[in-house]
Amino acid sequence: MSQYSIPLKYRRMENLHIVFWLFKDIGWCLLWKPLGLVMIIPTLFISVMIAYRTRDMVSELCHNLAITFWISANSYWMISEFMGFDGHRFYSTITYKHLAIIPFMLGVFCLAYYYAYWQPKHPNEVETL
For residue range 37-70, what is the model confidence (pLDDT) as tens digits? Predict the structure, then answer.
């Protein structure tokens, strides 16, 4: 049985990433705009770094890109609420908040690519699930 291990310095970075993400969402939940907005930067930056560092493992890359798109969508949604344009109409009944669906769907496409296309074509590749 193969085992996937994460170097300690990467694991620490991933753990710190969770801390930043929680503080970003706490800022959003409690309407502390400065905290929420400032925490977007390290949360998104570390997410991109994690995806980049896992670029050689398709499973990890696809999942980490999905997380990056999730954070992007979540951050845009938070910004739209903080700045008060979330309820403004973009087109017909679609509001600006609804545009967060674009990065959310990009994340879904990353995972769909992995599970529906890449993984079935590489059944003998050792990847994480």
Answer: 999 999 999 999 999 998 999 999 999 999 999 9
Give the pTM: 0.90
Q: d(Cα 62, Cα 107) in Å, to the nearest integer?
A: 8
In 3D space, the residue among 76, 64, 66, 56 whose CA is nearest the CA of residue 107 turns out to be 66
CA distances from 113 to 21, 68, 69, 95, 120 (A): 26, 16, 15, 28, 10
Q: What DSSP character marks residue 90?
A: E
CA-CA distance, 95 to 76, in Å (whole number)?
A: 13
Please check whether residue 79 is in contact with residue 37, taking contact to mean a CB–CB distance below 8 angstroms.
Answer: yes
